Amino acid sequence: MHRALASLLTCLTLVTAVGPATAAQTRALTVNTDFSSATFSWIDLDTRTPHSDVTTVGYDPALRWVGGLVYVVNRGGPDNIQELDPASGFATSFQFSTGNGTNPQDIAIQTPHKAYVSRYDSQSLLICDPTNGATLGTISLAAFADADGLPEMAHVALVRNRLFVAVQRLDRNAGYSPTAFSLVVVVDTEADTVLDCDPSTPGVQGITLTYKNPFTAFGYDRAADRLYIGCTGAFGVADGGVEAIDVATLTDLGSVVSEGMLGGDLSDFELWSPTHAYAIVSDASFNTLLVSWNPATHQFIGTVAAPGGFSLADCAIDDRGELYLANNGFSAPGLYVYRAGIDTLIAGPISTGQVPVQISFDEARSEVAGVPAPRVAGAAFSNPWPNPASRGVQFTLTLPAAADVRVEAFDLSGRRLRTLASGTRGAGVTNVAWDLADDAGRRVEPGVYLVRAERGDAHETRRVVVTR
After folding, report:
1. Number of C-alpha atoms within 13 angstroms, CB side, residue 284?
2. In angstroms, rounded to a whole number, what is the distance separating the alpha carbons of residues 463 and 192?
3. Which of 56, 222, 323, 465 falls 20 to 30 Å from 200 in CA-CA distance?
4. Following CA atoms 346, 288, 221, 417 in sequence, which dihedral angle do they give, to the nearest 10 degrees?
5. Which one has a higher pLDDT value, 148 or 449?
6. What is the pLDDT of residue 371?
7. What is the spatial distance between Cα 84 and Cα 71, in angstroms, rounded to a whole number?
8. Which residues lie below 8 Å from residue 441, measured CB to CB, with a gap of 6+?
9. pLDDT tens digits along 89-143
10. Is the Cβ–Cβ distance between 275 and 6 less than 8 Å?
11. Are 117 and 103 in contact (CB under 8 A)?
């Protein structure tokens, strides 16, 4: 095991622990299944009113919210990325193939016109334009494969100009069992080359993980610049856990908590505070449990939910401090809502139509860490990126012809803080930037702000979440 994390975690401030004062999310987003087909649903966070089965998606979907759009990664047979636009009631606005038989797993969007897609049944990472599906290139990860010839790349996370790719290295010839080790491979997104994470060893090395079979999505702590990932190891054996990666040094920091301590095979985790976190585990009888644990002491706190059967699929915490839990069992399925940190049930079950298998939210937090937002198709004023922002934020303003424009930043009371652009702009794309300061040069406080673009009688407003 690598060096202990106790001293680090005692001062950890997690991005998931955003309080109500900066709440910006308005909807919970889910993908759901009847185990032969799948749908997308959303729930109003204020009223908890569900809007169920509004769009059909692939039968094995993975949900990602990035910069104002929903991306559904349709794994297995469909092998495509489906874009859902909230402006049209989450109808499918675009769809593109990732290659027949490639089995896409995750998507990270670096710029409005550049994205990365991990592909489980391919040796190469796909680079594409998410606005039109055009292939921009590939990055081979064949050097990181095990004996079956495939690296089994799973979840990805984009932090600044580095893409982190979880590489499971499972032996398909032995029932997808873990091999000697698993990795996180790091890609330089400026050069689109794989970085060497261990120059002292010959060849190009990834980050060797403490545990095997990285199974969950990444979690990111902006304050500490740490990534976290949950590893399942071999199913039915308590040989996995959650571990941390130092983004700056590209080193594995070791275990945060073990499956032995959590009480079963790990399938998901959520970090709420330096002393309170959650995990979904499956015990020896294949009953799934939601448990809480202490990242500072690595100790088990208690069982939060135990509905019986293999029924708990995913959990996620919104920026109001509410933990949403997806129950897809036969008895009382739906979403259950708990007060994070206290572990008390406050709502549920909330129906999503077909039973829920994954949860996300529509603002402030992205399933992919630290990414810029893509342009909404047909919009003159783009979504902000990055969002949330800590140093600055950018927009693009697209004009079909020359026009007088004005772009201004406001607080939620309507007080104008800064004029970002004014005057005549020519046809085409104009970049607009805000350094998060007001007209007097004072940096604004953390919170939610509005940026409004006016062109004649038309106007569009975008919301920006500012963090420390």
Report:
1. 3
2. 31
3. 222
4. -30
5. 148
6. 40
7. 6
8. none
9. 999 999 999 999 999 999 999 888 899 999 999 999 999 999 899 999 999 999 9
10. no
11. no
pLDDT at 4 over 80: no
When comparing pLDDT for 295 and 385, which is higher? 295
Residue 273 above 60 pLDDT? yes
Residue appearing with tokens 């095990």: 146
Q: Quick check: 19 pLDDT over 50?
A: no
- Label the pairing between strands 124-128 and 80-85: unpaired
Above 80 in pLDDT, residue 339? Answer: yes
CA distances from 234 to 171, 238, 309 (A): 11, 8, 20
Whose tokens are 């081979």? That residue is 140
pLDDT computed for residue 8 by the predictor: 27
CB 35 within 8 A of CB 354: no
Evaluate whether 128 touches 115 at the Cβ level (below 8 Å): yes
Q: Which residues is 397 bridged to in the sheet?
A: 381, 430
Which residue in 383, 420, 431, 425 sits closest to 400, CA to CA?
425
266-295 b/e (C-beta count within 10 Å ≥ 16 → b): bbbbbbbbbbbbbbbbbeeeebbbbbbbbb
Rounded Cα distance between 452 and 460, Å, is 6
| CA-derived radius of gyration, the chain | 22
Beta-strand runs (E) in 15-103: 27-33, 38-44, 50-57, 61-66, 69-74, 80-85, 91-97
Q: How many CB atoms lie within 10 A of CB 11?
A: 10
pLDDT of 405-452, one tens digit each? Answer: 899 998 877 788 999 999 888 888 888 999 999 999 999 998 888 898
Residue labelled with tokens 């994070």: 340
Q: Strand 61-66 and strand 69-74: pairing?
A: antiparallel
- Measured between alpha carbons, how far is residue 99 from residues 81, 82, 120, 125, 225 in Å? 10, 14, 11, 11, 34
Q: How far apart are CA 348 and CA 325, in angstroms?
A: 9
Say if residue 169 is exposed, middle or buried (CB neighbours under 10 Å; 0-12, 13-18, 19+). Answer: buried
**Rounded CA separation 295/3 (Å):** 15
Q: State yes or no: pLDDT of 144 exceeds 50.
A: yes
pLDDT in tens, 21-60: 344 789 999 999 988 899 999 999 999 999 999 999 998 9
DSSP, collapsed to helix, strand or coil, labels residue 304 as strand
pLDDT of residue 6: 29
DSSP label of 383 = P
Identify the three-state secondary structure at position 88: helix
